[in-house]
Amino acid sequence: MKLVESLGAQVPALLGVLVGTVGTIIATTVNERARWRRSQSVRWDERRLDAYVDFTRAVKEIHAVATQMLGKHRPGARRPPLDRDEGLARLAEADVRHTLTWEEVLLLGDEVTVRAASGWRDAVRDIERAARALPAPPTGLPELICRADERRDDFYRAARDSLGVRGGTVDQVRRPLTVPSAAESGIPVARGGSDRRRRQPTPPASSSSQVS
């Protein structure tokens, strides 16, 4: 009887120990899983950053070589024109690096970033085609270069959002500013002189002009 009473008195304590042990195991498991997820997220972010940087270098290399080959058709170009044969050889090497880095972006990038990277890639391809077509003069070269620069900014914005980078815009293309009209800005518009003249009161007739 005393043994049963002794065991009955120890049951609450044993239950408390059991509940505490189970709670500790659950908390430890949850913390370990959260730590593992964070480490995996950091790991993939690092891989994604490397993929974006390598892709950027490859596309920029193609852009630089192609535009230098087109130097004679770009007034004010800072670098001397590149010989066509040398340029084609450098483009072939850059295309290989570009293909490899593009596959990494497809594997690791999110949908928005991949779409922006594809747009930049296609825009630079248009400049490359113009360079490969030399000595035929390119058509609309300034527009092609401007389009490539705009697509580059789109890719940078998407890549920064994908990696959680903050700090404002990094656009390199100067976009035209939209100046609001006076009506949109709420500034009262002054009326012309003709309106003021129409609003002036008519002076009363003098006594000399009145008929007696």
General description of the model:
With 212 residues, the chain is mostly helical. 70% of the residues lie in helices and 0% in strands. It contains six helices and no strands. Helix 3 (111-132) packs antiparallel against helix 4 (141-163). The longest helix has 68 residues, at 2-69.
Give the helix level as a range of percent.
over 70%
The mean pLDDT is: 79
Shape, per Cα inertia axes:
rod-shaped
Q: Please state roughly what percent of the residues sit in beta strands, choosing from under 5%, 5-15%, 15-25%, 25-35%, 35-45% or over 45%.
A: under 5%
Count of helical regions: 6
Distance between the termini: 140 Å
**Gyration radius, to the nearest Å?**
36 Å
Helix-strand topology string? HHHHHH
- Largest sheet: number of strands, sense, barrel closure: none
Query: How many distinct beta strands?
Result: 0
Q: Structural class given helices, strands, pairing?
A: mainly alpha
As residue ranges, the low-confidence spans are 177-185, 189-200, 206-212
